[in-house]
Amino acid sequence: MREHPVRLMIVDDHPVVRDGLRGMFDGLPDITVVAAAADGREALALARSTEPDVVLMDLRMPNLDGVGAIRRLHAAHPATKVIVLTTYDTDGDVSRALAEGVAGYLLKDTPREELHRAVRTAAAGGRVLSPAIAGHLMAGKNQRQKDPSPRELEVLRLIAKGAGNKEVARTLLISETTVKTHLKHVFAKLGVETRAAAVVAAIERGLL
Amino acid sequence: MREHPVRLMIVDDHPVVRDGLRGMFDGLPDITVVAAAADGREALALARSTEPDVVLMDLRMPNLDGVGAIRRLHAAHPATKVIVLTTYDTDGDVSRALAEGVAGYLLKDTPREELHRAVRTAAAGGRVLSPAIAGHLMAGKNQRQKDPSPRELEVLRLIAKGAGNKEVARTLLISETTVKTHLKHVFAKLGVETRAAAVVAAIERGLL
DNA sequence: CTGGGGATCCTCCGTTTGGGGGATGCCTGG
DNA sequence: CCAGGCATCCCCCAAACGGAGGATCCCCAG
């Protein structure tokens, strides 16, 4: 299928994880780790100089985080496949990453062999998902609510900090009625009916 | 100081991290990795057979998680030092771990050399904290509120799921008045004044 | 044994929330 | 051009909430 080994770049802010991943691909004839970056910014720079075929990357990073990094990576290197490798499996992250066209979304508890397979699959143009993730997506497809709008999230953020409608209104320079309207929409979109549940839902989906 | 190498056990449910850590201690003359476990249960078993001097372990694990594992480890092997190594730095986790008498609390973005130093320090009977953690503790000491009681948290959990006072009362088989009282205490202990802020605070402190 | 914390209950009261209706502009993508 | 999403605002109203006071019981630690 391929004469040259897959050129792999690792992106993760934890040295432990970087080294762990590097070690996992050690000694494989068909995969070579050509770079390891600690954040999105570094990843972009290294991608330019090392031209990886596949990038394994964490979503939560300093400087330039996952989704942004993926977008700019794709823009600069359309042929490069990105596999997200993260600890979390929040819906928000997953769907936003998938929207960016990633080649895979794996959890960090993925065993060695599966990682190998994932990288090969991605290099060959395929897609891979951790079973847990796939499950989440299935569950989500049936009653997927749209995400709250930016303005609505702004309101929700203040609510999460303990503000009342009045206070939110003052802070955002809008009327209290508007705050309530935003909140009503947030509730509908998150499928909840109290502010408390709304903030939890938003946090779980990675919106806050 | 010590004639024999430090016997180190690694406990983490992520293969990536396990291998990463193992690699980081490779080739050190004074530290030997004698075991690696995927959860608390396994850790206890391996501790008995391998008698490690120091244990590096994650807090969030399946089967038997951090705090429980630490407690039982200490009970069975009082001389064994435990260093918590985790991604999170939530107050709740930190204080509960410290209460268990751990020898250290490090974040996973700790560089290699610091990890080495930490293990040596722990083996010698010392204590180590990530700077970020140390900061948190300082901040906490000045205005530390007590954590909510188990019952109070039970109420808060239901609130987080969107229940109203009435519903909580029915679920817990107590009166609505009692629910409000619990909540009032929760607010005071978390330093907030709305349910929404309370659930966020609780989540941030790792109480939910 | 005395105190304090937890858990349970109460009343009173003003404020906030959440749900039901709308309505208006503004932009963007078919 | 027109539907649809967003953001902004309005009224009405019942229910829920949060604060301020108690009060009892129990249990454990000093």
Number of helices of chain A: 10
Task: Please report the distance between the alpha carbons of the first and last residues of chain A.
Answer: 43 Å
For the biggest β-sheet of chain A, the strand order reads: 2-1-3-4-5-6
Domain module count of chain A: 2
Bin the strand percentage of chain A: 5-15%
Task: Tell me the series of helices and strands of chain A, N- to C-terminal.
Answer: EHEHEHEHEHEHHHHH
Mean pLDDT figure of chain A: 86
Name the chain pair with the biggest interface and residue counts per chain. Answer: A-B, 36 and 36 residues
Query: What is CATH's topology name of the largest domain in chain A?
Result: Rossmann fold
At the first level of CATH, the class of the largest domain in chain A is Alpha Beta
Largest beta-sheet details of chain A: 6 strands, parallel
In angstroms, what is the radius of gyration of chain A?
A: 20 Å
Tell me the helix content of chain A. 40-55%
**Low-pLDDT regions of chain A:** none
What coarse outline of chain A follows from CA principal-axis ratios? elongated
Q: Give the oligomeric state of the chains in this entry, treating copies of one chain as homo and distinct chains as hetero.
A: homodimer
Strand segment tally of chain A: 6
The CATH homologous superfamily of the largest domain in chain A is called Response regulator
* Backbone structural class of chain A: alpha/beta
CATH-defined architecture of the largest domain in chain A: 3-Layer(aba) Sandwich
